[in-house]
Amino acid sequence: MDKLDELKMRIYGAEVLRIMKNFYSYDVLSSLTGLSPQILSRYVTGHFLPSLDRAKNFVEVFKKRILKEALLRNIEVRDNVVVNIKLLSNARLLSQLAKVVAVEFMNLKVSVVLTKETDGIPLATFVAGELNARLVIAKQRKEVGVENFIEVKQVFPSGVYSYIYIPKELLPRGSNVLIVDDIIRSGSTVRALIEACNLMKAHVVGIYTILAIGEGIKRIEKDYKVPIKALLYLK
Asked: What is the DSSP string of 188-234?
């Protein structure tokens, strides 16, 4: 982690601590972080920045105690169908989640954040901004005016398939790619995106999803040996 990334991490640690102070007293925060109320108040008021280790601890507490609960309030499961319209339209919540994602993958020098239209786009956009990376969106149709595409078949569990297209110039050889999606169920979308990266000799350094359902995420991790992180898991 370079000095700029470290400073961003420390600033964000102070920011999430201030957010948590809206929900918890100093005494509760003290029990959650292991720091005295006096020390915590210095960070909340902005008089001092937390150390890198303390900032990481604040982000971890924030993720477990605030972010997960907020996301659950914005997601509904109806007859095994995930309804995430409220989540995907909550820009403030997605912005906070993107910062957590950036912390998770900050050390991997991500140069491209890759997603597939449409529901993965909101979070991927915020994540790309946090990581100062290029946002690349795989689409189901070729863009007008673009000549050279990567074309990959996406095969669904039912056996039905479709194709996704990515302009070649947006995924240069040697790129460090973070794949971002809103939900991983069977993993067919992520597999197609990984295949596109392999065709272009780009390196998939990580995968992030808000919600993982079933065993798809475990199979991807086993097949491709790529670190995958999810905020929420449903069987």
From this structure: HHHHHHHHHHHHTT-EEEEEEEEEEETTHHHHHHHHH---EEEEEEE
* 154, two tokens: 């996406």
Peptide bond into 45 cis (omega under 30): no
Q: How far apart are CA 92 and CA 95, in angstroms?
A: 5
Q: Show me where the domains of the chain are located.
A: 3-60, 94-234
190 half-sphere exposure, CB direction, 13 A CA radius: 29
72 to 84, 97, 118, 181, 202: CA distances (angstroms)? 10, 13, 21, 17, 34
Mean pLDDT of 208-225: 91
Secondary structure letter of residue 50 according to DSSP: P
pLDDT at site 235: 74
Which pTM value belongs to this model?
0.90
List, for residues 142-190, the tens digit of each pLDDT value.
988 898 999 999 998 888 999 999 999 999 999 999 999 999 999 999 9
CATH of domain 94-234: 3.40.50.2020
